[in-house]
Design a protein that fits this description.
Helix content is about 25%, strand content about 20%. The protein is of the alpha/beta class. The strands form four sheets. A five-stranded mixed β-sheet has the order 10-9-11-8-12. The protein has a three-stranded parallel β-sheet with strand order 5-1-6.
Length: about 290
Amino acid sequence: MRLKKSLMISAVVTASILGLGACASGTNEPAASPSVAASPEFEAGTTMAKLHDAGTMTIGTKFDQPLFGLKGPDNKPVGFDVEIGKIIAGALGIAPDKIKWVETVSANREPFIENGTVDIVVATYTINDTRKQVVSFAGPYYTAGQDILVLKGNPEKIKGPEDLKGKNVCSVAGSTSEKNIAPYGVNLITTDTYSNCLEPLRSGKVIAVTTDNVILAGLAAQNEGEFEVVGNPFTKEPYGIGLKKDDTQFRNFINDTLEKSYKDGTWKKAWEDTAGKVLKTPEPPAVDRY
């Protein structure tokens, strides 16, 4: 069974930040732009040189996830993923207004990278071995954890995925979340965006929604009084930046850029201007130079 309607969705929480509904106002405002390198130099023929010389780049991100990637008042996305994209573009000498943003959902992230629709994907994109067979990853730049969204008050007393066996649960087709919840014996209802799971949860067609806790946090924040996150993450989801397979020089450049942003405070500011309006500021994860 597939749901086909589109709504607007979300973000993620741990148990300590469940009371975030009242804090969500303003989370769709653009953050202050990161700095743009004045005259970076790159080896001829590299992806960095090509993008710098073009003066523009295309970044895939989500348009329906508050705190990470949500279409803003000017129809451009805002959120932490968006700011990470701007940091990378800035290191290439590309200003934010020269970035082309392409809406990218879970199911088309690999195809968009493979066919050149986008140069990179920054879209709550969990790094895993299956995806590494198709694309390369820089990062991670954040680590989330899969959790469960239920109706406010948790009437079914759901404590973890074991309590969902045999029950209707909504997630996104092709996502890591779909794969992670399947072994628990749930009756899985899938859709193309997590926002499509909201109405079925309201109406009782599903008992829960499951994905990364930050995505669920955004849902709870934007629908104050309706939902809550169980607050018991059962996975670790390292978010990475997707790029073309085996473009090692570009991958190293992005990793270097991320590490620099950790040290100079740019990453922290990007977080505090977006997701940090609702979620506590975490320590940035070490990049994986596999």
